[in-house]
Amino acid sequence: MRLIGYLRVSTERQAEEGLGLQVQEQTVRRFCRQQEHRLLMLTRDEGVSGTVSAGDRPGLALALTTITDQRADGLVVSRLDRLARTLAVQEAALAHVWRHGGKVFAADVGEILTDDPDDPMRTAVRQVMGVFGQLERSMITARLRAGRRLKAEVGGFAYGSPSFGYRAEKGELVPDQSEQHALNRIAELHAQGASLRTICSTLNDEGFPTKRGTLWSPGSLGRIVKRMDADNGAL
Hints:
Elements (H helix, E strand, L loop, with lengths): L1 E8 L2 H6 L3 H15 L2 E9 L11 H11 L5 E4 L2 H4 L3 H13 L3 E4 L3 E2 L8 H34 L12 E4 L2 E4 L1 H15 L4 H10 L12 H17 L1
Parallel strand pairs: 1-2, 1-3, 3-4
Antiparallel strand pairs: 4-5, 6-7
């Protein structure tokens, strides 16, 4: 079968460092090779929550459109929770693929079978998997919220990794001069109408690293540009 591989990580740090993306890609490629499917391409959403609908995820939207146009026969993910972290989003994405004659595969369990009125347990098991994915996300969110409250109570910086351009120092946010220079360069290129890919190439060529010291990608840069536009709009 002609398959589209879909990869997703939920945090900006994972996106910048590639945490999880390489493993997902290797898993998807191995599955297609072992099952003798043809992997047409990989789409990805970097730093995007699994609760976000397909319409707001460019990578997933492209994968679904390719199946809708019958240029691919199905979708493959490393695990079902990479497709979605809420039951509603999961079921909507699956229904879209099935409605257009496609198939969905998760590398760890194989094909996600369509509903069968003679086998209600099939639907129940799939939806239970979705519910547990949603529960896991809620528990992670609750732990993070509790940790942030504790930090705030003792007067520390309570909101995770500082935005690009700043660093946490003794519990306070302070400008990071090297990152501020990079922000100025991004703003200059963006004002000139340069594309995200062009800005990435320029930053990489001029030696401006990301917060994690890696090369720039359109995914990580896009979030910074979007934040800049929002800040400018608020002035």
